[in-house]
């Protein structure tokens, strides 16, 4: 992959993160034009609309019809989105036990303790 292509991908990933940050901060559905105005990066509205549509197609956003388009809002907060990505990755691998084992073994001592506590709490809630 050429260096310019890598930079383009990084910028796109940062732009997606910026779009999500705007929506999380707003706390309400926004149109592409509204998101674009908050971003204030000089982007074409269609660029922002494409990012929003792709995030909707991935299930990251929900959309509501409004005059002349759609308004978008996140289906989950930032932590919920990260958890969904982790779950999808886990479900896509055939050796779940190995993936979980390697994940747990890579945790810091503090994160491992937090995970133990959360698993205990989840067990208590299901009883």
Structure description:
The structure is a single chain. The protein is mostly helical. Helices cover 69% and strands 11% of the residues. It is built from six helices and three strands; from the N terminus they run αβααββααα. It has helices at 3-26, 32-39, 45-57, 78-92, 96-105, 109-126; strands at residues 30-31, 61-66, 69-74. Strands 1-3-2 form a three-stranded antiparallel β-sheet. The longest helix is centred in the first third of the chain and has 24 residues, at 3-26. The termini are far apart. The mean pLDDT is 87.
Q: How confident overall, as mean pLDDT?
A: 87
Please report the distance between the alpha carbons of the first and last residues.
Answer: 52 Å
Structural class: mainly alpha
Strand order of the largest sheet: 1-3-2
Shape: elongated
Percent of residues in helices comes to 55-70%
Q: Count of DSSP E strands? A: 3
Q: In percent terms, what proportion of residues is strand? A: 5-15%
Q: How many strands, what sense, and barrel or not for the largest sheet?
A: 3 strands, antiparallel
Helix and strand element order: HEHHEEHHH
Unreliable stretches covering 5 or more consecutive residues: none
Round the Cα radius of gyration to an integer and report it: 19 Å
Keywords:
elongated, mainly alpha, 3 strands, 127 residues, single chain, 3-stranded antiparallel β-sheet, 6 helices
Summarize the structure.
It contains six helices and three strands. The protein has helices at 3-26, 32-39, 45-57, 78-92, 96-105, 109-126, and strands spanning 30-31, 61-66, 69-74. The mean pLDDT is 87.
């Amino acid at each position: 992959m050429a260096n310019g292509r890598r930079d383009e991908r990084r910028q796109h990933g940062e732009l997606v993160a910026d779009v999500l940050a705007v929506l999380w901060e707003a706390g309400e559905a926004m149109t592409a034009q509204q998101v674009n105005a908050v971003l204030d990066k000089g982007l074409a509205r269609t660029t922002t609309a494409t990012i929003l549509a792709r995030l909707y197609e991935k299930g990251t956003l929900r959309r509501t019809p409004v005059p002349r388009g759609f308004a978008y809002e996140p289906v989950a907060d930032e932590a919920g989105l990260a958890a969904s990505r982790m779950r999808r990755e886990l479900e896509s691998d055939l050796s779940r036990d190995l993936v979980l084992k390697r994940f747990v073994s890579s945790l810091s001592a503090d994160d491992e303790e937090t995970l133990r506590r959360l698993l205990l709490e989840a067990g208590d809630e299901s009883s």
